[in-house]
Amino acid sequence: MQDLPVAVAGEETERDGVMLSCQNGCMTTRRNIPEDQARTAALLDSVPYDLTQRNWLGHTGGAALIDAMLLLGATKAELVAGKRGAVDEHIRHLRIEHGLELVEVDGKKRFRDPRQQ
User: Fold this and answer.
1) pLDDT by residue (tens digit) across 11-61?
2) Ranges 3-7, 23-27, 32-36, 70-74: which has the least confidence
3) Phi and psi at residue 15, in whole multiples of 5°?
4) Which of 6, 35, 42, 98 has a CA that sits 20 to 30 A from residue 112's CA?
5) pTM listed for this prediction
């Protein structure tokens, strides 16, 4: 996994073509979508995560929490409770910047397995 640049809240930083934007957690842009999809697929088989570190998508804080919740499956209410803020914006970010889609089963959203797209 590449070493990601560090940014402070409200600012953007770029390194090696990866943009990092931090507001209530860090999200990255201009990512390697096939690599993000492969890492997500592997994590769907086993759900290790540590919210104190950057996750496999380069996210921290509330953004990393949403990512972890989407590995396991969560309702919209659970996602909102987990991260007070822009859940819909983060889901859009996952689709556009990481090429990751969600499925909903029994009212719970989770990552669609990229191997089955």
Assistant:
1) 555 545 555 455 556 667 778 888 888 888 877 767 666 667 888 899 888
2) 3-7
3) -150, 130
4) 6
5) 0.62
Residue 23 placed within a domain: no
> What domain range includes position 69?
33-54+63-116
**Any bridge partners for residue 18, and if so which?**
15
Query: Do residues 18 and 5 make contact, with C-beta atoms less than 8 angstroms apart?
Result: yes
Q: Which domain CATH number covers 71? A: 1.10.10
Instruction: Please report whether residue 44 resides in a domain.
Output: yes
The residue type found at 58 is G
Tell me the pairing of strands 26-29 and 102-105. unpaired
User: Shortest CA distance to 28 belongs to which of 40, 15, 44, 42?
Assistant: 15
